[in-house]
TrEMBL record:
GO annotation, biological process: phosphorelay signal transduction system
Chain positions with 4-aspartylphosphate modification: 60
Gene3D superfamilies recorded: 3.40.50.2300, Tetratricopeptide repeat domain
UniProt-listed Pfam families: Response_reg, TPR_16
PROSITE patterns: RESPONSE_REGULATORY (PS50110)
Domain Response regulatory: 9-129
Organism: Ectothiorhodospira magna
Keywords, ordered alphabetically: Phosphoprotein
Membrane-traversing stretches: none
UniProt protein name: Tetratricopeptide repeat-containing protein
Length: 406
């Protein structure tokens, strides 16, 4: 397949100017005629991606403070700023196992370690473009919301031998699952695993079983996917969900801990680890998970008051009142723009009062003062009832039960 490099639009994301210039010069020498757009920060990259669609993105993994390359890929994919026809290549000077796992979990088309030679860059780009170029019509159909047309185009590609069959079948199965065509998703995956059972196909079969409430079959599929590819993290996450639904919390915790040990840069995974640890009263594990969740959420601006409250709770259960008070102060600073901050703040103060009886009356007076002006929002309502019961404030808890927020 001939790839017209001179027509491709490119975005280079790197916090070092010399590296941006070097990559731009390499692309020009390789036949990329269009001047690439450049971004020195993650936020600048996201702004450019929001305004323009690129054929190729070369993104450094480590961009200094804040968001990194994995964040950019995840956010851009979630917002639809990159699609199945976009080439995304992760570039980095790091080679630690945790960094590589975090980068690969997001699924870039290639991974390049610095220093980069022109020959290696060309090889990675050409290989990735040959995979993505046939997907251009499919991407256009999906942007228009026409999934049936996208599936038709994928079938035409399979019939004519255009494109990588593994990519086509995977996307077909994912689209079928996404649109609720479970029979088609199962059919595609069962056809694929006859030759070689890839982890993604086994995982989709597990998701199909999960949709049918066949938890036993779902568990089997997810475990098989983990055997085939131990570092396929989606299988770990789905398996933990199945085990949790079965009430097997310790088994679920073991699976999530294994997943976090392999790839810890997942906000949802850290939150699940924290919830499971708290349910099993493993406070040290819970504290570590909520601390990591908060740090992962900061650059994404996705910190929740609940994250801080859970961290405070675990810290208090470990008997560290002073440290819990510092976490409460951090929460107030971090959530200063949150309209519900006063509720998160009073909830945290009441948790501290459970372990510091001298502050109980003052904390309850503060709660009463807020309650005179408004009812608590839904996200803190049950938490307030629970902590009031721990403080033996049954009457206040019952009043809250009777005044449900809308």
């Amino acid at each position: 397949m001939h790839i017209a490099l001179d027509r491709k639009t490119v975005l280079i994301v790197d916090d070092f100017q010399n590296m941006r210039v070097q990559l731009a010069q390499m692309l020009e020498s390789l036949g990329f005629a269009r001047q690439p757009d450049l971004a020195s920060t993650a936020n600048e990259a996201l702004e450019r991606l929001q305004r323009r669609r690129y054929d190729v993105i070369l993104c450094d993994y480590n961009l200094g403070e804040g968001l990194h390359g994995q964040h950019i890929l995840d956010l851009a994919r979630r917002e639809g700023w990159i699609d199945v026809a976009t080439v995304f290549i992760m570039v980095t000077a790091e080679n630690s196992a945790e960094m590589v796992m975090g980068a690969l979990e997001s699924g870039p088309d290639a991974y390049l370690a610095k220093p980069i030679s022109k020959e290696l860059l060309r090889a990675r780009l050409v290989r990735a473009l040959r995979r993505r170029e046939p997907m251009v019509p499919v991407a256009q159909a999906l942007r228009q919301g026409d999934t049936s047309q996208a599936l038709h185009l994928l079938d035409m590609m399979l019939a004519t031998g255009r494109g990588e069959s593994a990519d086509i079948l995977r996307l077909k199965a994912e689209l079928a699952l996404e649109t609720g065509d479970l029979a088609l998703a199962r059919q595609v995956c069962e056809m694929v695993i006859r030759e070689r059972p890839p982890a993604w196909a086994l995982t989709i079969l597990g998701q199909v079983a999960l949709h049918h409430q066949d938890l036993s079959a779902a568990e089997t599929w997810f475990r098989e996917a983990m055997v085939v590819t131990p570092f396929f993290m989606a299988a770990h996450d789905h398996l933990a969900s199945v085990l949790e639904q079965q009430g097997r919390l310790q088994d679920a915790l073991d699976v999530v801990e294994q997943a976090v040990a392999r790839s810890w840069r997942s906000l949802s995974r850290q939150r699940r680890l924290g919830r499971l640890a708290m349910a099993l009263e493993e406070w040290e594990t819970g504290r570590g998970a909520w601390r990591q969740a908060i740090e992962l959420a900061r650059p994404l601006e996705e910190i929740r008051g609940e994250d801080f409250l859970n961290l405070i709770f675990c810290t208090l259960e470990l008997g560290e009142l002073a440290r819990a008070a510092k976490i409460l102060d951090d929460m107030r600073r971090s959530l200063s723009d949150d309209p519900a901050l006063r509720w998160w703040s009073i909830l945290g103060r009441l948790h501290l009062a459970v372990h510091d009886p001298d502050d109980k009356e003052a904390a309850l007076d503060a709660l009463d003062g807020i309650m005179l002006r408004a009812l608590p929002p839904i996200q803190v309502h049950q938490g307030l009832i629970a902590v009031l019961l721990r403080l033996n404030e049954v009457t206040r808890a019952e009043l809250l039960r009777q005044n449900l927020p809308t």
